[in-house]
Amino acid sequence: MRKILFLSISFLGFVANSAWAQSNQEIVVITANRSAKPLSQIGSSIFVIDAARIDKLKPIQLVDLLAEVSSISSNRNGGIGSYTNVRIRGAEGEQTQIMYDGVRLNDPSLPSGGFDFGTLMAIDIERVEILKGPQSSLYGSDAIGGVVNIFSRAPQSAFEARAAVEIGSLNSHTLRAGISGKSENLNYAIAAIDYGSDSISQLSEHFGGRETDSFRNQGIGARLNYAISPNVNIDARANYAASKLAFDGYPPPFYAFSDTYEYTKSDQGQLYLGINTNSASGRLQQTLSAKRFTSNRTNYDPWLLPKTTYIAHGALEALEYQGNLAINERLSLVFGGGIETSKYRNRAPAPWYPGPPSERQSATNKSAFVEAQFEAIANLNATIGIRSDNHEAFGTHESLRATLAYRPNGGNTIFRASYGEGFKAPTLFQLYSDYGNIALQPEQAVAYDFGISQKFAGNWQFGFSYFIRETKDQIGFFSCWPTTTALCNTRPFGYYANIARTETNGVEVEFNGKIFGVNLNGGLTQLSAKNIAAGDANEGKQLARRPKLRSFLNISYDWSDDFNTELSWTHSGIAFDDAANLTAMKAYDLLNFRALWQISPKFEIYGKIENLTDANYQTTYSYGTNPRTFTIGLEVKF
Fold first, then answer.
1. What span, in angstroms and rounded, lies between the C-alpha atoms of 217 and 558?
2. Is 541 helix (H, G, I), strand (E, B) or coil?
3. Is the pLDDT of residue 163 over 70?
4. Is the CB of residue 520 less than 8 Å from the CB of residue 462?
5. What is the DSSP letter of 141?
6. Cis peptide leading into 230, omega within 30 of 0?
7. Over 50: is that where the pLDDT of 15 sits?
8. Starting at the edge strand that comes first in sequence, how are the strands of the sheet with 125-132 ordered?
9. Are 180 and 188 in contact (CB under 8 A)?
10. Dihedral over Cα of 89, 90, 95, 101: its sign
11. 419: left (phi over 0), alpha (psi -120 to 50) or beta
12. What span, in angstroms and rounded, lies between the C-alpha atoms of 105 and 98?
């Protein structure tokens, strides 16, 4: 502990938080404290991708936006639509909580309980807030690496309609359309997307991949808010997407990763229904909400009878209450609780057993939390909070968090510090499957974060952060060969156990400014992520698929009020594909180019060249990545 504190204090004068405003206008964030607060008063590390940036990037998928966020890395098993994993500050992908319009997306049907970003398209997204570090005191399970909170576009005028069409390399197309509007009592928005691509082979062409693995996705989202009275409104939101993805597998007789004709059909749905009230004095806001996330996935092999090889269904259902109470101008409370039930059902038909019974499991968690948010002295904002979760499988778990934000000179300089605890409940698969262990305890993490952000003349801003996190009781797979235990009597191939321990620490550097009319925006992350489980065969090794160095730079220029170009560079350092550090993936650099021409207030044309240098690289060993691709699009607004 003394060593940690010494390192933290030493860095305090030189490093800063990764959350910095991208304009002179004060940014208000919601995710950090579960209440709307100015960014300058936030002690946690948070990054905001706003509507202006999203409109400029024209992303196809949500993960495209995360490439320019420090300490975030992703791995994709092939082309677009393939399974995609996102890590924050070196945590496992399933240790990040994903929220979309108030609904948690972590999927109980997956063995790890994480979320597949490969099917999450950018349907009218207005804003993304990335909260880094353990946040379980506010958000509960899965929030060890952090929280990604996605907000759909809210209506801005009485009526607005927009549509866009894109065509590009790999026989890809994108169609988007949306309408929105608002009146005195009613706000509404609805948007849809259709995307298709022949894509590439999941098996890299450098490993023998020849046939393409196509992807098709269609999605729709809607939101409605109706004010019953000046102090009461009803909020409803829904999203649905269906996908079809071809993938490569491990066919007989060699069971090696090869080209196959397998494919999967999947769909995800989200529902949110809430009622919001505001007291007559405006000091107490309350929300009661019901939420549901569902995931369905079916795999097919056309060469088998039956051709269905796997069926999985997952669901998260929650009822939640939250209150925000302003006690006075300097003190407020955020408090609440809820009950959440996770469910999964799966079965795996085979030619020798075409009708196996479904495996069904469920678990319920009850929670309560409270956080005090206060101005301790002038210009010093602080929070302290606690949460209690009661899970029917492992019992009660408490999580703490405390943050500080100090702005000594009107916000030009901001010092930040935070302490956070995170946990991840064992998944239904880890508890109850053929490899399950009902004695599993939750994974637990403790983290510290220190930083400073600084504004300079000429609209320049710099930020630095130092963070350290230790995770214990991490769930791993225990093989029953050659070692054996009592549980191996019923789990002969192995089982899940709390056997892993990891530590990550790192430095983030970010800047944003303008010189000679050129807009510059960049960042760098130096990360150390290691296995520290005493006696483990991989003790001291770098955690798999975590590059030690990652950096990005965006260079943008406005040639006129109507025409803009941008060159983006990202670098990812050497990473290992395995825990033993035997399979290395080389460092790589990617260049992307974008151009946008605002023909009129209602029409704009844009183009993108991605992987400009046609670099050969891997984010997951032996899986393919896109070559140089071209896209051109037209957007119309009414």
1. 34
2. coil
3. yes
4. no
5. T
6. no
7. no
8. 45-49, 125-132, 146-152, 96-100, 103-104
9. yes
10. positive
11. beta
12. 5
Cis peptide preceding 251, ω within 30 of 0: no
- Burial (CB < 10 A; 0-12, 13-18, 19+), residue 75, is buried
Q: For 281-332, what is each residue's pLDDT tens digit?
A: 999 999 999 999 999 999 999 999 999 999 999 999 999 999 999 999 999 9
| Contact between residue 467 and residue 132 where contact means Cβ atoms under 8 Å apart | yes
Neighbours of 503 (CB within 10 A): 17
What pLDDT does residue 137 have? 97
pLDDT (0 to 100) of residue 12: 34
Element (H, E) at 65: helix 62-65
CA terminus-to-terminus distance, the chain: 59
Three-class HEC string of 407-455: CCCCCCEEEEEEEEEEEECCCHHHHHCCCCCCCCCCEEEEEEEEEEEEE
Higher pLDDT, 370 or 11: 370
> Domain residues for 168?
2-637
Residue 473 in tokens: 């009781």
CB neighbourhood size of 46 (10 A): 26
CA-CA-CA-CA torsion sign (475, 130, 556, 194) = positive
Whether omega before 627 lies within 30 degrees of 0, making that bond cis, reads: no
The reported pLDDT for the residue numbered 18 is 40
406 touches 418 (CB < 8 A):
no
Residues near 178 by Cβ (< 8 Å), separated by ≥ 6?
124, 153, 161, 162, 163, 189, 190, 191, 192
Q: Which residues contact 575 (CB under 8 A, 6 or more apart)?
A: 542, 544, 545, 546, 547, 548, 584, 585
**Alpha-carbon span 362 to 364, nearest angstrom:** 7
The CATH number of residue 526's host domain is 2.40.170.20
H/E element holding 502?
Answer: strand 495-515
Classify 371 as helix, strand or coil: strand
Distance from C-alpha of 495 to C-alpha of 248, rounded to nearest angstrom? 27
Token pair 């948690």 is found at 104
CA distance 461 to 185: 40
* Residue closest to 606 by CA, chosen among 624, 623, 594: 594
2 Cβ contact partners less than 8 Å away, ≥ 6 residues apart? none
Contact 68, 554 (CB under 8 A): yes
Positive or negative, the CA dihedral 590, 120, 169, 260 is: positive
The pLDDT of residue 410: 83
Provide the number of structural domains found in the chain.
1
Bridge partners (DSSP) listed for residue 633? 166, 606
Distance CA 576, CA 503 (A): 17
